[in-house]
Every structure is written in C-alpha cells, then in structure tokens.
C-alpha cells in the first residue's frame, strides 16, 4: 500500500499544516504499521530538504514553475496523472486550499481551521470549488468536535468526518525548573523581556483573535491594580497587525506591552515557562494548541469560553466571556490574586489534562483512518 502526502501549502514546515506534517513524520518510525505500507511526500522542489523523512519516506518533487497559478493549474488538470504514475493507493492533503475537483483515488484531507469563517470571505467561485472538493473526499480529519460542527454549515456529510485531536511534543513542552527561571529578564535573542509578564501567542490575522480587546482589558487591569506585569503578544504579523499596533499605541501602558512579531516555535517553551500565565482571548479557534502547550509546561491559562478552547482545556482554565473586556480584565486580576495553593492545583490539573494529548496517539489514529480509506481504492 503506497500513500502520497501533499506538502503544497505547508510553507516549508512553518505553517500550521507544515508543523502538523513535521510532527507526524517524527512519530512514523516508532509506529508498527503492519503489512506493506509505504509513504511518499510530494510537493515543490524547494521543499525537498525541509522535512526529515529518514530512509523510509521518500520526497518526490513536482516539476512546476514556482508560482501559485501553475500550482492551481496542476491540481485542476495534472495531479491525477501524477498520482497514477506514482502508483498511490491514497493521497493525504494537509490543506483544503489545494485540492483537485475530483481525485481518482481515495483521499484524506486534514482541516485544522474553522473553515466556514474563512470560506465566507472568499469569492463565490473559490468557495464553491473548495466545498465541492471536500464533498468528494473519502475522509475529512478535524482536530475538534467544534470544527466538525462547523463543517455542517458547508453541508458536508458528517459521517465522512473523523475527529482526531492534535498532539503536543512533550519532549519540548514540559515543566521547566532551575536557576534560569529566577532571573528577572528573559533573554531570547534578539529580545530581552522583563518579568513578570503574561503571554498571548497567536498570529494577528483576524479581529476574532481579540488582540485589541486584550490590550484594552490589560490596560484596565494595570490601571485598577497597579501591578508590575507586562503583556507579550507573540506571533506573526497578519492582516490585523496595524489595528493591533494602533491599539497598543493608544494605551497609557504602551511601554508595558511588547509585540514580538514572528517567533520561532522552538523558542516558545522559554517564553511560556517564564510567564505568569497564558491569556487566550480568541473566539475562533478550532484547535487551541497554544493553550495546551502552556498547560503542558505548568503555566496557568485564562481563556475565552468560545470555539474549541473549552474542548481543549476542559475545566482547567479560568474562563471569561470572549466578548467582554471587563470579564477578561477581572480574569487577569483573579489569576494574579489566586492563593498559591489554588494556583498549584490549577497547574497540576492542567499538566494531567495536557498529558493525554501527544503526537504518537494522533499519528496512530490518523494512520488508521488513512489505511481504511486506502483499502477502498476504486
């Protein structure tokens, strides 16, 4: 059985789809697949050396000009011939943005986004094409019940949708200790961030991420309590970056709010470990990985009770109404003012909860779905 895995749209392993692929590939060697199962990555020539595939997984570059129009044309008219030449029994797509209208072999698509929100902002023709392509696949894998329910809005067959929660790399995200945490400054080149601080890790891509509301709620918290805490907004710039920067400049506590811009994922553990807490006000999350990563490091979390966040964190967070800046400000104050014994219990419960999310389990469940679909090859 030969399975093709698409790397188009993975942004050299940096996008959400790319990180998902990297995590899956890391676990593959340790999993007993049973039978004769072979995996092969395919994508742009520029991605050839971006993934550690080992000896068991080959990378086959697709010979295309390096531009979006050529890739779009290939999915429309050339990909099925390529799949036939490679003798794939099934293909896995890690992004719904790149899908053929109809694939001649069984397919699995991984959807990690709240898709309806993004699709309804696209042109009608693009929206229709993606919805039609998704309706033709063998299985859609989603990271939460929330995303599965969201796909009902696209009138997709719910029986085709499998919920497989994303994992956490516990070799990277684990409780830290030692003298490094005693320092008053976190030195992560090129930044030096003074403690204490709260962290919100999310790309500034949408007003539903609630960066501006967090800035105002944090400012209110500072004004009411006089606490020395700072706010670190870590994440890549997006369509909403200017609006967030404007909100920061308008705050009387602008000097206590730090925008890092894009931050390499491997440096987040140090940012989390030294923080006083992780704040997550977004109301449009389909996964909630940043919250789980913080919890797995023993960091208490404050979250909007929206999207997939309650599903991801259980009863192990301080929740607030994502549309209320007053509730968010009060939640921050509550975290700072919690009795130490309450805080320790919150951390311990969060660690126990986060331990159930791991990439080995995610990979095993994903492979079971892929193999089941591949056996239905026409």
According to DSSP, the number of beta strands is 15
The CATH topology of the largest domain, please? Answer: Rossmann fold
Tally of separate helices: 14
What top-tier CATH class of the largest domain fits best? Alpha Beta
Helix content: 25-40%
Order of helices and strands: EHEEHHEEHHEHEEEEHEHEHEHEHEHHH
The portion of residues forming beta strands comes to 15-25%
Helix and strand composition category: alpha/beta
The domain count comes to 2
| N-to-C CA distance | 14 Å
Characterize the overall form. Answer: globular
CATH superfamily grouping of the largest domain: Glycogen Phosphorylase B
The main sheet orders its strands as: 3-2-1-4-5-6-7
The protein's oligomeric status is: single chain
Contiguous low-pLDDT stretches (5 residues minimum) are none
Whole-number average pLDDT? 90
Largest sheet: 7 strands, parallel
CATH architecture tag of the largest domain: 3-Layer(aba) Sandwich
Task: Report on this structure.
- This is Glycosyl transferase group 1.
- Residues 20-171 form the Glycosyltransferase subfamily 4-like N-terminal domain.
- Keywords: Transferase.
- One of its GO terms (molecular function) is glycosyltransferase activity.
- InterPro entries: Glyco_trans_4-like_N.
- This protein is of the alpha/beta class and 378 residues long.
- It has two domains: 2-167 and 359-374, Glycogen Phosphorylase B (Rossmann fold); 179-354, 3-Layer(aba) Sandwich (Rossmann fold), CATH 3.40.50.2000.
- Helix content is 38%, strand content 17%.
- It is built from 14 helices and 15 strands.
- The chain has helices at residues 16-27, 68-77, 79-86, 115-119, 124-136, 145-150, 211-225, 241-250, 268-273, 289-296, 309-313, 325-337, 340-354, 359-374; strands at 2-6, 38-43, 57-61, 90-93, 107-110, 139-142, 161-163, 185-188, 191-194, 197-201, 230-234, 257-261, 277-280, 301-304, 318-320.
- The strands form three sheets. A seven-stranded parallel beta sheet has the order 3-2-1-4-5-6-7. It has a six-stranded parallel beta sheet with strand order 12-11-10-13-14-15, with helices on both faces. Strands 8-9 form a two-stranded antiparallel sheet.
- Helix 8 links the parallel strand 11 (230-234) and strand 12.
- The protein is globular, with a radius of gyration of 22 Å.
- It starts with a strand and ends with a helix.
- The mean pLDDT is 90.
């Amino acid at each position: 059985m030969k399975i093709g895995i698409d790397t188009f749209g993975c942004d050299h392993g940096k996008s959400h789809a790319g990180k998902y692929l990297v995590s899956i590939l890391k676990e593959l060697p340790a999993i007993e697949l049973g039978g004769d199962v072979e995996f092969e990555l395919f994508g742009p020539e520029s991605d050839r050396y971006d993934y550690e595939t080992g000896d068991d997984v080959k990378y086959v570059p697709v010979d295309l000009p390096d531009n979006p129009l050529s890739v779009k044309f290939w999915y429309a008219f050339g990909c099925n011939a390529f799949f036939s030449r490679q003798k794939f029994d099934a293909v896995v797509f890690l992004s719904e943005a790149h899908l053929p209208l109809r694939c001649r072999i069984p397919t699995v698509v991984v959807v990690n986004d709240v898709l309806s929100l993004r699709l309804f902002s696209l042109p009608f023709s693009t929206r229709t094409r993606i919805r039609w392509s998704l309706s033709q696949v063998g299985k859609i894998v989603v990271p939460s019940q929330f995303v599965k329910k969201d796909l009902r809005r696209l009138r997709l067959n719910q029986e085709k949708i499998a919920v497989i929660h994303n994992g956490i790399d516990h070799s990277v995200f684990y409780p830290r200790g030692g003298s490094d945490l005693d320092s008053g400054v976190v030195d992560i080149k090129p930044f030096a961030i003074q403690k204490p601080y709260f962290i919100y890790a999310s790309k500034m891509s949408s007003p539903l991420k609630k960066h501006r509301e967090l800035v105002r709620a944090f400012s209110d918290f500072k004004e009411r309590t006089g606490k020395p805490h700072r706010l670190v907004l870590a994440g890549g710039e997006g369509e909403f970056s200017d609006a967030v920067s404007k909100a920061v400049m308008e705050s009387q506590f602008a000097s206590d709010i730090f925008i890092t811009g894009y931050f390499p994922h491997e440096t987040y553990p140090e940012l989390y470990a030294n923080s006083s807490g992780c704040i997550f006000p977004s109301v449009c999350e389909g996964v909630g990985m940043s919250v789980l990563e913080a919890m797995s490091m023993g960091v208490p979390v404050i979250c909007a009770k929206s999207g997939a966040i309650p599903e991801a964190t259980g009863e192990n967070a301080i929740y607030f109404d994502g549309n209320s800046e007053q509730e968010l400000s009060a939640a921050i104050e509550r975290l700072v003012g919690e009795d130490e014994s309450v805080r320790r219990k919150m951390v311990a419960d969060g660690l126990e909860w986060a331990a159930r999310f791991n990439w080995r389990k995610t990979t095993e469940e994903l492979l079971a779905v892929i193999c089941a679909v591949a056996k239905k090859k026409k």
